[in-house]
Amino acid sequence: MKGTVYLNDKTGIVVIGATGREASQVIKESETLYPGIIKAGITPGKGGSSELPVPVFDTLKEAVSDPKVGKLLNTALIYVPPVSVLDAVMECLDNGIKVLYIITEHVPIRDSEVIYQEKVRRGAIIVGGTSLGCFVPSVGRIGAIGGKDPTVAFRDGGIVVISKSGGLTVTTAEMFKRRGWGTYMALAIGGDIISNTTYADVLQEIKGDPRVKGVVMLGEPGGSYEEQVAGLIMSGGFDKPVAAFISGRFQERMPEGVAFGHAGAIVERGMGKATDKIARLEAAGKKYPVKVAFYYHDLVKTIESLGVPRDFEDSTTEHVKPLYSTF
Amino acid sequence: MKLYEHEALGSIFKKYKIPVPRYVFSAEMNDAVRQFVDKEPGVVIKSMVLVGKRGKAGAVKVVSDKSQVEKVFSDLATREVYGERSIGALVEEKLDIEKEFYLSVTYSTKDRAPAIIFSEHGGMDVEEIDPKLIHTYIVSDVRSVYPYQIRQFLAGIGFSDKELLRPLSEVIVNVYNAFWGSESRLLEINPLVVARSGDKRKIVAADAVVILDDDASVNPAVVYGARSAQGRPLTQREQDAILIDQGDHRGKAGSYVELDGDIAMMTFGGGGSTVTAETAIEAGLRIANLTDIGGNPPAEKMYRISRIILSKPGLKGVLVCGGTASNTRIDVTLGEGLAKALDDMNAEGKLDKNLVWVVRRSGPEYVKGLKMLHECFVRNGIRGEIYDSQLPITEAPIRLKELLIKLVGYKPEEVV
Fold this sequence. Notes:
- The complex is a heterodimer of chains A (about 325) and B (about 425).
- Chain A has about 325 residues and is of the alpha/beta class.
- Chain A has 2 domains: about 1-130, NAD(P)-binding Rossmann-like Domain (Rossmann fold); about 155-310, Rossmann fold (3-Layer(aba) Sandwich), CATH 3.40.50.
- Chain A has helices at about 20-35, 60-65, 85-95, 110-120, 165-180, 200-205, 225-235, 275-285, 300-305; strands at about 15, 40, 55, 75-80, 100, 125, 135, 140-145, 155-165, 185-190, 215-220, 240-245, 290, 325.
- Residues about 255-270 of chain A have low confidence and may be disordered.
- By secondary structure, chain B is an alpha+beta fold.
- Helices cover about 35% and strands about 25% of the residues of chain B.
- Chain B has helices spanning about 5-15, 30-40, 70-75, 145-155, 165-180, 220-225, 235-245, 270-280, 300-310, 330-345, 365-380, 395-410, and strands spanning about 25, 45, 60-65, 80, 85, 90-95, 95-110, 115-120, 135-140, 185-195, 200-205, 210, 255-260, 265, 290, 315-325, 355-360, 385.
- In chain B, strand 7 (about 95-110) and strand 8 (about 115-120) form a beta hairpin.
- The chains are: A alpha/beta (about 325), B alpha+beta (about 425).
- Chains A and B meet through helix 1, helix 4, helix 5 and strand 14 of A and helix 8, strand 16, helix 11 and strand 18 of B.
- Strand 14 of chain A pairs antiparallel with strand 18 (about 385) of chain B.
């Protein structure tokens, strides 16, 4: 198999909520960039529609029974409104789809909890909510990650980028690409409080993969998923280089309860603060190849200092000039 | 969104049959309060604020001498507690308290499940309770939560008061059901008291803290009215911003938290916004707001949030900053939405030409979008620099600081 459990050369995608504004744009883009990776779309009431470059069905049951595409479907990309996400997840699980991406933001926490418990019972892989998707340059992509021209940010290499923030996943891959490191996989896990795939889940999946040379992890305040990485590493569960950046130290200097960013990025009751996460990871770094970057742009030096080899040449110039200036 | 205690009692505790003291809430002294007090031998009066630790601030008082009620009430109903103005006072029956427990339900990210947290040693701040005396029951199957499970849990932690096993387990399940049914992210009762009532004992919630999920299937801001997470009333700009996303889930442009600074922040993406704001503060810029625009909002949403962000008085600089967007269209957001806001503000004479701008953005149609924004800058006489992703995202605020110092003599904050 080429790729990871999250995205590989056998991946066949069905898009749930396919004819919506964002989903239809993503399907069209994907068809141009990676033709054939998306096999079908589902929108109740739009079955048989020809508005998309893939067949559209009213129900997932019809799609999985379709003689042409049915057997190829194994991954779902969910784009429905927040209150319909739980329904879409259950439709996927009940129709045998085992890898799901929830792109939708603002999924009610209660629904996320029900989804997580079903995922565990059924042994499925679910990424999100609030995921932007996954990119494996040697295989393709799931979702909008990397936009219309993903070559700007992504080139095949040995780094795995894992981030709650979708935007920073791409921004980080691009920063590394400019400096000579390519991406093996970039996964936007989303910042929801109940996260179906955590950093530690990903590390456990990829720990034996020889193509992984180093991991860049972008964390945020709230919850304990970053701390769990420190725990996993300390227990010997992952031994490759990990460079981490945890944003949100500044929130600790602000009035308590200022909510900002993702739903999960809320500092409450003194738990899950950026400084707590940094301290735990730095403690792991005393014995294992883990380092925390102080500034976001220090991540590059951090990966370099951990001895992760460049995949190609550094292409940076000394001084960046503005594209436009009106001074 | 956090609820006031009287809201939690009236709408959630009542519905889920969580026993509470007799109470009345009022913004000012009136006949309802007087009649209530007349029937009670003693009362407890509490300031209604969202901030915690009221007791320590002297905002909870037991009044047994009824001649003091009017005075205490009018003090607590209007006083400021840790800087937050009280919206009224809650008057409750005075309970004959035998014991105080701690009880809360919240989500544990360690277990990715609801956690029922219980201690026999309540009444003080939970941070002050010995962690060894705090016990957690993880709801690993939300489809079935029964009192017998709670009794097994209580027996397992050596709960000493056997007579209370059944009634307490039933109250705890009701509290869990209230948490789950109301889509809370925290429901806390501290203290949950055992009170004497004649020769009987009853379990009563003597406090109620409820934080609802802002993403709940029924939007709490619609039910209870929007409020600031900072425990202060929303500013006009914050209220206007909330309206942007209402009834339209295409992208998000309505998150806006107003701060005291002079640098307008027009930042994109949850993570991108956080790192940009963080670096701006580290660099000594005094930021005027936080925002988090994303998910490819239409031009109209971008237009509205741009006008709100730029309407704050006293601004010196503007940072428009985001990473490499995957689906947010740069031509739509910056080339159309922001540019139209600037055109209109200029036409209305509301655009401050002394502002110094740094723009750093990449993503779909960024070449077109940044060019459109540049043309807008030129036609409106706006001073700024526009970068794409050649400039690492966190260097944009540092560049703005350099320009501000050079051009307007900006004095950055000393950051420790």
